[in-house]
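Quarterly update from the structural biology core.
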Amino acid sequence: MCQEPAELETRIARCERAIFGDDDSAEGLSARMHMTETTLAKIDSTLSRLNFMILAAILVGILNVLMPRGGHAPTSNQSTSVITSDAAPAAADAAKAESAAQTRGYYLTADIARLWGKSSRTIADWIKAGRFEPAPVQHDREWRFDLDVRETTTQTAAAISRPPPLSAANGCDPEPQ
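Predicted structure, tokenized:
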């Protein structure tokens, strides 16, 4: 199996061209291997950035679940009153409420709450219980009170809202025999 040197030279030249390419060296195995390494490095960099973005999205999702969003306006059934320990700001609020009501010609629920030191929720509950004379008038989502409004006593309001017992209405004895 002895081969001639010219044939060996040809084979070696062919192997060199396959490994290193021709004169421009853009098509040999080493050039292709370099391109593959460069492409793999780009893919690795992109995957690292993608992993970071996925982790950031998961963190934002968890924070959205754990922390309620702020900035929502209170709905009509939410109290907006603030309890303060200092009497001076409360008196100033009451004076402002009184002045505004005199200008408008009627009180609003928030005005009554400030004047009487109650929450707006309490005033709304009292409206439902019929504890004001004269009764306030609902205008859109707000209640309007006359300037001479007063609170009826709890007993009077309970007597108005509670029907008489059946035995008294029918003239029957309440005790069964």
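Residues 101 and 107 are 5 Å apart (CA to CA).
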